[in-house]
Protein: HscB mitochondrial iron-sulfur cluster cochaperone
Amino acid sequence: MWGGRTGALLRVWGLWPAGVLGRRPLSCNAASLAGSNSPQCWNCGGPGGPMRGDGFFCPQCRALQPPDPTRDYFSLMDCNRAFRVDTAKLQTRYQDLQRLVHPDFFSQRSQTEKDFSEKHSTLVNDAYKTLLAPLSRGLYLLKLHGVEIPEGTDYEMDRQFLMEIMEINEKLAEAQSEAAVKEIESVVRDDMEKAKEMLTKMRYFSNVEENIKLKKIPLQ
Structure:
């Protein structure tokens, strides 16, 4: 169904590895389930775990809390869990979070808060970089659905596609005019759009496949 160059491009992205539909997706409700435990604040003992808002600070003593390990990048950066992301909104969110948790603002606080600040800042940076680039965003989105690229994937790509990539790079290196560069850009952009469309389709197929598994479970 998905052959040719576009299918090969999906293999490079890791969107079409062998056995992809047989892997178990991560639960989208993990954060809400974990939040029901309401961990206590390390500083005052109050309910300082996941709560309304961003949940970075204890509502009683305002001490910075540790990062929530159940929170994914999309939730952290206040983005819909989808391939298309508003990058302007993403950048604004990144700046707001860094003003909230950057280590420079915790130089006079306790060592515990300094350590948490470092972890939060690193997590925010990683989330921002991952969601900003379409490739890493797509791969992360699939990872949330239980799909990860196995080690050595680069060596398993079909040779025809690798030859096409080499030819494109050679044409780009030899391009002497803006028109030639735009022509190459048009070809690559077309393939990227097709891959994006297939990524969306794979997300739905993954959901359907999970429902099939649930349907197979005998009723108790």
Observations:
- Confidence is low (pLDDT under 50) at residues 1-36.
- The CA atoms of residues 25 and 219 lie 22 Å apart.
